[in-house]
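The instructor's notes for this session suggest beginning with a concrete chain rather than abstract definitions. Hand out the sequence below and ask the class to guess, before any prediction is shown, which regions might be ordered.
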Amino acid sequence: MSVPGLIDRAEAIYELPMVDRDPLPRWTHGRATLLGDAAHPMYPVGSNGVSQAILDADALACAWGKADSIEAALAAYEAQRRPAAAAVVLANRQGGPDRVLQLAEERAPNGFTHIETVIPRAELESIAQSYKQTAGFDRDTVNRRGASAGGAADAGDRSNR
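After discussion, reveal the predicted structure:
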């Protein structure tokens, strides 16, 4: 089956724009806060929406385990995650790691056999590494997060706060 042929034979083609929102100036209001898509709706690049929500939940749990009050926990969580998530929202507007698709189109409009002839491996790795750092997925960030984990798991019952 030919994709262009399928499109040519379609009776109707529907286009739904991808949308995001500008980063919010704050997530926390009193004793309530946002996380995940409620805090930072973003273009669906890879699985970043859910990945950032997981990082939000981890940061919130760790802050909760270390803080003396709900307000302090929410402030620590927001201070850590809001700037980081905003950076991902803004990076996704520039194509995120998928910007290699645009580079390939620009550099080889008639196609190519091997991506490395169009975009050298070092450039591909640099783009990927830069995005991993922005999204918090690079090895150093993940290892630091793992080394400091346990705050939430070891916090005990905080339900009396």
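Then share the key points. Residues 150-161 have pLDDT under 50 and may be disordered. The two ends are 61 Å apart (CA to CA).
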